[in-house]
Here is the input.
Amino acid sequence: MRSLLFVPADGGSKLAKAMASGADAVIVDLEDSITPERKPQARAAALEFLKSESAKAQRPRLLVRINGLDTGMTDADLDAIVAGKPDAVVFPKAEGGSTVVHLDAKLTAREAIAGLPEGSIKILAQAVESAAGLFAAGTYRDVSRRLIGMTWGPEDLSAELGAEANRDEHGNLTEPYRLARNICLYGAAAAKLPAIETIYADFRNLEGLRRDTDEARRDGFTGRLAIHPAQVAVINEAFTPSPEQIAKAKMVVAAFAAKPGAGAVGIDGKMFDRPHLVRAQNLLARTGN
Ligand code: COA
Ligand code: MG
Here is the structure.
């Protein structure tokens, strides 16, 4: 998934717009964009939306962001939406593998009640958006076969730290949030999961989004959260490997295949060893090559 577009569950016409945005996934939000008084209506709207969209053939993946385990609202969220067969839930303020195991169990019970195959609803963990979450980011390996990725968020983190800002005057993340971003990358790599870059809040600044997203891809993120339909094309393009990159990856794979047992090969006067091969294979797998 390259682009994952948030839309508030009570967003009315925004829901259809999100579906038509070109995003690889639409995340119907029950958490931060919904006030506590509106949660019940939002849950009902999310279910109605899922029921009308989930059976369609050509569609983005449908995700629902539920409320976190410490809110007391998780059960009501799941009770409301599982029957709509979302592809996955987005799990905010995850605090390590044990919290995913907890959510996994809640999903298993509701899948049984709804007659869905066990494990069919996946989990995308917002793993680094609290201080405790940051310290638990290395504990996600093999905890649940539902886990499809890890992401992070500076907004809740900066609220928790009591910080004045999380980006400097040039729009770059300040040190504490750079650290959180990087820990998300390492945590995801340690768990062998895709790392999904957080939102870019300045949604009119597509130039800034492009730069920031190019850096995310350079560093190993494979997709990004979006909050506005205008961001989707920029994100999709940034995470779509160019024909040159695909050709280069095929060349690396072919060079190793031609020399079985070789630990390193030379291509055009440059050394390529195992890490290069793994990177090339990952890129080809991601693009269906
Ligand atoms: N999904 C679908 N459609 C969206 C959208 C979204 N996330 N954000 C904006 N749109 C639609 C608007 O409804 C508007 O439609 P219209 O032309 O028919 O009126 C159009 O795109 C242009 O929107 P624009 O005027 O530029 O923005 P806005 O002021 O209406 O909305 C936000 C700004 C931030 C409120 C809106 O982008 C939004 O709701 N984003 C998601 C918020 C969210 O889910 N947050 C939680 C995760 S961090
Ligand atoms: Mg949040």
About this structure: The longest strand covers residues 122-128. The two ends are 16 Å apart (CA to CA). The chain has eleven helices and ten strands.
